[in-house]
Hints:
Layout: H1 2-18, E1 29-32, E2 37-39, E3 43-44, H2 46-74, E4 77-81, E5 87-91, H3 93-105, E6 114-121, H4 127-136, E7 172-173, H5 175-185, E8 189-191, H6 198-209, H7 218-233, E9 243-245, H8 251-261
Parallel strand pairs: 2-5, 3-7, 4-6
Antiparallel strand pairs: 1-6, 4-5, 8-9
Amino acid sequence: KQLLILFGVILLSASYCFGEAKEYEKGERFKVNPNELHPTQFLFAKIEVDYRVKQLKEIMDTEGKEGVEEFLKSKRGQVVIGPRNSKWLIDGHHLAKTLSILRKTDPRFKKILFYVEVEKEWNELNAQEFEKAMKAGNKKGESGDTAFVYLKDKGGKVRKFSSLPKKLGSMKDSPWRGLVWLLKRSDVIEREERFPYQEFFLAEYLQKHLHLPSKMSSKAYLKAFKEAKKLIERTPDKELSGFKKIDENSCAKIMKQIQRNKFN
């Protein structure tokens, strides 16, 4: 009897220390604290996060907590489940970072969670196998698929997988990634196709052609945006990493303006 009790204590202790192993399925959706998400990139666009902070605050002011949660649900991120059920964010870094900031700075957001959807469930892999799978985009670790990780830093140097930021708050601002967001936001470009980290590939193109100051003021962003717009206008769509230029007189521009007014 004492052995049975001891065995039960050991099981409970293991469950407490390591958590219950959960099997996820592709397409499964759930809520998570954004601080528990592992970034799969070194960079983000601060100008976009600043905008999202204001956007979510305005939704909270006008529609309350329910409105915020509905918005987050409609904009859910995508995750790959890794070893020990770790959650690696492969899409949605900016909105997740926005919520992380608001949870710390605005009491109204303190208990709001981030919505995610499972893209891959690879929790049975060990650390080495998981790294290969993330780089290759498939469980076998064979090249050919789109990678689920972007390993270049602000200077364009390829970093080690193990040096990825542990938290969303450790990502660094990239003004070129910010310019891509501005180009989308201003209806200069739109997606023709979609694949992971395509904004970063376009940001790489901008970085090759545009020199930006180390610190970006509003005035510097305005100047850089004008230069980026001219560059995009003379660049063939096939070189725009899955984006295409938008005709200013097209219906797409009108529809985007309507959507923008609805916080989409």
